[in-house]
Model the fold of this input.
Amino acid sequence: MSDLEAIQDQRRFELELKTRAEELVQLLKQGDIPQAMQLVQQLNELRHQALYHEVGKLTRAVHDAIVGFTDDVSSTELLQDSKHHIASISDASDRLSYVIELTESNAHKTIDQVDESLQLVRQLEEGFQLRKGLLEELAAVESEKPELADLHQKLCIYAEDHSGALADLKERLTAIMLAQEYQDITGQLIKRVIQLVTDIENELVGLMEVASRVNSLGVLSSESKSDLPDSQDKEKPQRSAIEAEGPQMAGRNKTEVASNQDDVDDLLSSLGF
Amino acid sequence: MKKDMKILVVDDFSTMRRIIKNLLRDLGFTNIVEADDGATALPILKSGGIDFLVTDWNMPKMNGIDLLKHVRADPELRHIPILMVTAEAKREQIIAAAQAGVNGYIIKPFTAGVLKEKIAKIFERLQG
Done:
C-alpha cells in the first residue's frame, strides 16, 4: 500500500466521520434518540471497517512480499541456467530446503574426497615406514662400507622431509573436513527461516479467516465502499479453513504448498485486498 | 579410556555425524554408532553397550538436552559420560546442560584439538 493511498483512506474516513457527526448533532437537537443511537452504531461500524481494511491491506502486503520473493529468486540467471527441477520449485520454503539439500550433498562430496586423500596419505606413510626400515638396514652395513655413508645421509634427509610433508598434509585434510561443519550451522539457520516463512503463511491464512468471518457477520455495512464480490466471498474462506488445519511442512509436498499459497492469494483477492 | 569403547554420535545433520566420526577415528576410536535425534538414540542406548555419548542440542523430535535428562534419569544409563557438541552458545543453555549432568560441552564450530582435549578431560576426571 502506498503512502498516498493511506492518506486518501484516512481523509475519506475523516470526511465520513465529520458528516455523520454533524448528522448526529442534528438528530440529538431534534430529540430523535432512536435514530441517533443507530447513527452511533454506524459510526462504530465505520471505525471497525477502517481497521478491517488496514489489517487486510497489511496482510496483502506481507503475502505479496512472500510471493514476490519467490518470483524474484526464480528470475535470477543462476537458477534459470541451473538444473530443471529448480524451475519447478515455486515456494520460498522449498527453495531454502533445496539449499540445505545442496550444501549437504556437496559437503559429503568434499568429505568423500578428503577420506580418499587421507587413505592415500596413509599409503604413503606406510611406504615411509618401509623405507625407514630399509634405511636402518643400510645404517647397519654402513659401518663396514664407508662409501655408503654419503648415500645414507642423502636418503635420510629425503625421508625426513617426506614424513613432515605427509603429517602437514594430513592436518590440512582434516581441517578441510572440519570446515564442512558450516553446513550444519547454515542448515540450522535456514531451517529457522523456513519455520518463520511457514508460520507467517499460516498466520496469513488465519488472519484472512478472521477477516472473512467478520465480513460474514455483517460488520461491513451495505453502504461500505468495499468492492467485494459477494458470491466468491462465501466460498473461498471455507476452502482455506479446511487447508489451514494441516500445518504446512516446508519443502515436503511441493504441490500442496504451492496450492496453499495460491489459495491465500485467491482468498485475498476475493476479499478485495 | 579404552580405544575400543562403543561411542554413540547423535546429530540430525549427517555431515556433522560424519565429521565427528572421522575425528574420533583419528583419535583411535573405531567402535562408533550413529543416531539422528534423541528419539532414535534412546532405543540404541537402552539396548546396551554404549560407553560414551556425543550429542548435538538442537534436533527434531527429541533434542539433546531432553536426551541428556532421559539418560541421567535412567538407572541403567545414568553412568554414561555425555559430551555435548552444539551451536547453542548462550550462557543459560550451558548452565542448564551442566545442571542436567553433562560431562563436557563443545561449541560449534570447533577444532579436532578441542574434541581430543575434552574427551581426554572427561575420562581423566572419571578415573580420578
Notes: The mean pLDDT of chain B is 92. The first strand of chain B starts at residue 7 and ends at 10. Residues 112-127 of chain B form the longest helix (16 residues). Chain B touches chain A through 17 residues (CB under 8 Å).
